[in-house]
# Entry
Amino acid sequence: MIFAKPPFAGPEQVLDYVGRYTHRVAISNNRLVDIEDGAVRFRWKDYRHGNRQKVMTVSADEFMRRFLLHVLPDGFHRIRYYGFLGNRHRAQKLAHCRDLLGMPAPEASNSCSAKDYRDRYEDLTGHSLRQCPACHQGRMIVIETFDGVTGPPPYRDTS
# Structure
């Protein structure tokens, strides 16, 4: 059994609060004002005083402590979608939501989504991603795909 108190300010405020942390890091770079002499200055919104923007200064150690409180442990994943937007049966659940709200079904999308991203890029920009960027005559083809690891290959002892 789960016990949950009703939220003080209502469900909208709970969703607003939780929503700030589900898809992004705890603080974005544009909120950082200054990092100097072992102190970090950043902007924050004071909700108690009319959502006014204020600047707070904390030590670098305290800033890192607060930031790391939002880092998930190994094996945990950020919430992507939950409830009717969860991956399992999403289409059926959204269709049911539309029925309950009396909304028409969305129009079938055109074949644009079936096109390769290179074709869509060329349609939008007039430039081909398949053409050699140096000579503009040769054709680019995939020879090898890397797994994302960067840097020199590991040293292998062959002795």
